[in-house]
Design goal:
The chain is α/β, with parallel strands linked by helices and about 150 residues long. The chain has one domain: 3-Layer(aba) Sandwich (Ribose 5-phosphate Isomerase B, Chain: A), CATH 3.40.1400.10. The chain has a five-stranded parallel beta sheet with strand order 2-1-3-5-4, with helices on both faces. The longest helix has 14 residues. The termini are far apart.
Amino acid sequence: MKVAIGSDHGGYELKEQIKTYLKSKNVDLVDFGTNSGASVDYPDFGKKVGLAVTHENYDFGIILCGTGIGISISANKIKGVRAALVYNEETARLAKEHNNANIIALGGRTTTVNEAYKIVDTFMNSTFEPRHQKRLDKISKIEENA
């Protein structure tokens, strides 16, 4: 499994902990920044991870900012990205099962480390349910006509 990860300063600490956790599970991980807690702009990192997921060979992405909101909005501007702001195991599972999300967004200031581990595990172990494909097709048509 290959995962792209990125954050702004608000998600930096949690991102680093998630990286350590995923590496302990032998997940191939590429960090698209940021590399410190210094203030940076979340759209830059949402874009980097979004482009990596849609144009390179990644199974999914994880993006973080203070709340996960801004970075998810940014990533969702990229055609083909389905970034879901998740905040517990259920939303992580449903993001994959119903929406076939290819990126999950977490809040560095709103998600505990243990919650993050459970969210990531749940997302990685969930499977898209094809009965929802017609809705994803409608989303793709919106992208094509926007």
